[in-house]
Amino acid sequence: MEKSTDKMSVRESWQVFKFIFKFLLPFKKYFVWAFVFSVITTALASLMPFVLSVFMDSYLTPMKATDQIIFYFAGLYLILAIINSIAFFFKWNYLQNGSIFVNQYIRKKVYRKIHQLGMRYFDQKPTGWLITRITNDTDLFDFWQTLFNALTSLLSIIIAFIALFIIDHQIALVMLLILPLLILAVLIYQKVSTKVYQAMLAKRSELNTKLNEYISGMRIIQQFRQESRLGNEFEKTNDEYYGYRKRVIQINGILLSPLVNFLMAISIVVVLLMYSNRSLHAVVEAGLIYAFISNVQIYFNPISGLMDSLSNFSNGLVASSRIKTIMEEKEFAPQQGISTSVSKNVDEKFTDRKSVSNSPIIQEGKIEFRNVSFSYDGEHQVLKNISFIVNPGETLAFVGHTGSGKSSIINVFMRFYEFTEGQVLIDDQDIRSYSKEELRKKIGLVLQDSFMFVASVTDNIKMMNPQITDQAAKEAARFVQADKFIKDLENGYETKVIEGGAAFSAGERQLINFARTIVRNPKILLLDEATANIDTETEALIQEGLINMRQNRTTMAIAHRLSTIKDADQILVLNKGEIIERGNHDQLLELNGYYADMYRIQTLQKEL
Known about the structure:
This protein is of the alpha/beta class. Helices cover 61% and strands 10% of the residues. It has two domains: 24-327, ABC transporter transmembrane region fold, CATH 1.20.1560.10; 367-607, P-loop containing nucleotide triphosphate hydrolases (Rossmann fold).
């Protein structure tokens, strides 16, 4: 569970800081150089008032300033200002680039980690939540700036205090007494602002989640006229976010710059009073006062800037804890390419392991389930003791009501989830001994809903794989009968697909999905309700495409329309995760059981 900084202990905060700081190390040279140039700018900022002080007290006040001296000090001050500006430019450049590179590095690491996680993890996390983690939480630009500014602020305070001590050690010691008040102000602000700031971040995450859900489900929202209700819900969340944001602004307006500026004003008043008291007994040089007050400002300014950035530090620490949670997540996708001896241990928890070499190759496509049981939540089994064999080139069909376990068999076989008991074999080899690349290459999956990317039809068939030629994509489309409608499009295979493929019918999208699967020439074909949403216009093309696809391939199909799997070599009837009937179409009709009842009902519905 994620924690805000007000709920994290000092030890937990330190652990989070150490975790996130490791991402900075590959780019440390940028921050080192930024610090070097920061030292130069800070030193020059403290030195430049001394130049003016010397000019004022030694030449201007006693009226000894000649043209030569004026030009000398003006030129010296100008040179120092130019050097300071150049040093500031390099400091800023190195700091900005370093922060950007670290952000990119973190986002890349989190994105890759997401791809290693199992489907169970995504079942538990809303899409909007994940998007917020990958986009907002990895954007730690202000966090790195704050850390760097904290370091340089400390440096500025030390240099400024040394300068104050050199000018007047007695008054400098008085300025040192102000420091506890500043530290107290920082602690008060941190305590007051953190809770409100974290509530604001939580609302922002909730906004992102709602936006993702509403935009993804816009058709359903408009279909059922839910615009007003959901609009009110969004407006309520948005108002709550605004309320927290407003409170953060109010807190910052009271406890940040105004408070520091007030303490700085008090310090300047104290300095002027002490120098005024001295002037009653001795001459006090105006340039000295100017240099001292300038360094007092240098002493306070970094503190003001640091306090302004405290909210960024709180935000960054919480974001880092969320990143840490994802990076330490153990809900890995089932691992492949491991030794068969290990894979037979059903109690083994598959985490992030290196694949062994010489992983077997799928050649025949024989499939076998041996007493396989599976649970999504670890408590309720959705598959119970499933056993069957599909010989090379045969077709096995699964039928049953919703929730009977049909799709779960496909999920287990595709290695989206790890099964808990039994064995799954391909060509008499444990499925876990094959590499993931081999499984994805030799197993083709066609889902009920075909997702289309915003790209050309050709790119959607190729899935942007540069190793697949345009010609191969066209041949695959012809093979599954998709070419018959693609060639009639305005731009043929180069027609741009809008988001979700909304311009195509369900059947046309499914034909493209067939082509996408067949272009890789898989040895095993999985059809998960592939004909459930087809329209009558393309039904004939779909059926012809399926016949072509199943040729010389081992096929497992989930079927809602029993008429589409009448020619299957074997049909398994599932109920509550168990196989209750098995046989071919004719054998199951003769059995006059569950399958026969389903078939008669569908036949009657079709006649009506």
